[in-house]
Amino acid sequence: MDRAALADFLVRHRSALQPADVGLSAGPRRRTVGLRREEVAQLAAMSTDYYARLEQQRGPQPSPQMLTSLSRALRLSVEERDYLFRIAGHNAPTRLSTGDHVAPALLRVLDRLTDTPALILSALGETLVQNDPARALFGDASRYTGLDRSAIHRWFTDPEGGRRMYPEEDRERQSRAQVASLRAAYATMGPQSRAGEIVAELSRRSAEFRALWATHEVGRRFEDHKVLIHPEIGPIELDCQALFTEDQSQALLVLTAAPRTAAAEQLALLAVLGTQTFSAH
Predict the structure, then answer these.
(1) Is pLDDT at 95 greater than 80 in this prediction?
(2) In a domain, 131, yes or no
(3) What DSSP assignment string belongs to 86-148?
(4) Which single residue of 71, 83, 134, 201 could bond 130 by disulfide (Cβ 3.0 to 4.6 Å)?
(5) Nearest to 198 by CA among 164, 155, 143
């Protein structure tokens, strides 16, 4: 771990960002050049004291998970992320794995989407980042760990939890789409990757998955129009648009409702109430 290089790298990249670059408000009477330490800490979900000690060359060696969070907070490119890992004393993540690094270009778009659900997904259906409206619609995805981080995995191993947001008549199509997406990821990442691990696990646990896997459908597809069932509000009709990175490894999903419709009113209600539990009446 090169403490001096790490500290200098963090300071320089923090100073190069403005609050608007990461979806924050600058506020009045701002004197700090770039982001404040507490703003980086907030974006990286760590304590301000921990982050400050890294910049002061006196903190403990950050874990790979912490470095991933810092890479996202500072909007680092893949090359910059790899450098950050190395000066912190870790091997850089393999480029063939999905990892948790989020494409900065997608993050910049997500930062500006504050009034409609939007989230960034990996090729394995893992929610890497979600805004507040998406958290209110889908729940907080950070609660999932291990293979359950993949919505594809949850779809076949936890039907009650994974499928309840979709109308029954749409679940067969959704099952095929999930398997087709996984096969596309498997083709890129290989059998020794996390995609291969999910395939092996689902092949062991789900007869439905085995049957669909045998059809060899391939492709990442998102329906342009879908109905999602919120546990409190009920069915919501939404339009869905996907923006992919060039290598197709990540997708920004944006869900919108037509103006002056019941769905628009439902999204507005979710925006007000957030993730708190409330009665449908």
Answers:
(1) no
(2) yes
(3) HHTTSPPPPTTS--SPPPHHHHHHHHT--SS-EEEEETTSBEEEE-HHHHHHH--GGG--GGG
(4) 134
(5) 155
- What's the mean pLDDT when you consider all of the chain? 88
Q: Is this prediction's pTM over 0.85?
A: no
Rounded-to-integer distance, Cα 163 and Cα 272, Å: 25
Strand segments (E) across the chain: 118-122, 127-130, 225-230, 234-244, 250-256
Structure tokens at 13: 């990249």
Amino acid at 117: P
Q: Are residues 162 and 47 in the same domain?
A: no
Same domain, 141 and 209: yes
Give the pLDDT confidence of 220-279 residue by residue, as tens digits: 777 788 999 998 899 999 999 999 887 778 999 999 999 999 999 999 988 887 755 544
- Alpha-carbon gap, residue 256 to 158, rounded angstroms: 27
Contacts of 202-211 spanning 24+ positions with Cβ under 8 A: 202/152, 202/153, 202/156, 202/157, 205/156, 205/157, 206/156, 206/157, 208/156, 208/175, 209/156, 209/179
* Contacts of 69 by beta carbon, 8 Å cutoff, 6+ apart: 44, 45, 46
At residue 23 the predicted structure's pLDDT band, cuts being 50, 70 and 90, is: confident
Q: What is the pLDDT of residue 162?
A: 79
Residues 230, 157 within the same domain? yes
Same domain, 70 and 125: no
Distance CA 20, CA 102 (A): 18
